[in-house]
Amino acid sequence: xxxxxxxxxxxxxxxxxxxxxxxxxxxxxxxxxxxxxxxxxxxxxxxxxxxxxxxxxxxxxxxxxxxxxxxxxxxxxxxxxxxxxxxxxxxxxxxxxxxxxxxxxxxxxxxxxxxxxxxxxxxxxxxxxxxxxxxxxxxxxxxxxxxxxxxxxxxxxxxxxxxxxxxxxxxxxxxxxxxxxxxxxxxxxxxxxxxxxxxxxxxxxxxxxxxxxxxxxxxxxxxxxxxxxxxxxxxxxxxxxxxxxxxxxxxxx
Length: 253
Prior knowledge:
253 residues, single chain, alpha/beta, 19% strand
């Protein structure tokens, strides 16, 4: 069952989300971060991947961090120029369910796609003490390059939208980018990316993987031919999901 949850952040704001618990005793948790991030949100509807994790004894927490839609203007605009700051909402949510005695705080991984992939990577950099593993699917790794590459900057009004959403402070763009803090990524890390992705450019994923290799940071990567920002081939989805499940099982047990 997908249970609604709410909690108070460290800066005294109210945050909402959903917790899906497996049958029996709950210990392991995956924080599952939605994409966007400006406007989309999680709902209490059926998610096959979430249900599959629960069937394997893994609880799933979805946090509608500030920036998610449906909670008012100030809630939605809080994320502007603050892509990394809102990750504290996810950290607070995990610690909340731990304080409720619902999970083992020492058996937590984080996963997401698109912005969720960014969040999974940057969260592991910011809070390596909190996560046993991190999985980024079609994630963003190099924020300054979003202003140069990909389909957002090339679209009509795209540059302006990037400035609104990410701000114009180039130092903050670097500070928010996993690429420039790659040496701090010390937890087991798995990155997946479609080679035709132009929303979160594939070239930046390769660049990040090469940076990790140069730093001697071991990680797992799966670069998928003929797929873009999301996977449509059924066999590709099956294979990538099986690799995800096995990665979680390896690092949460």
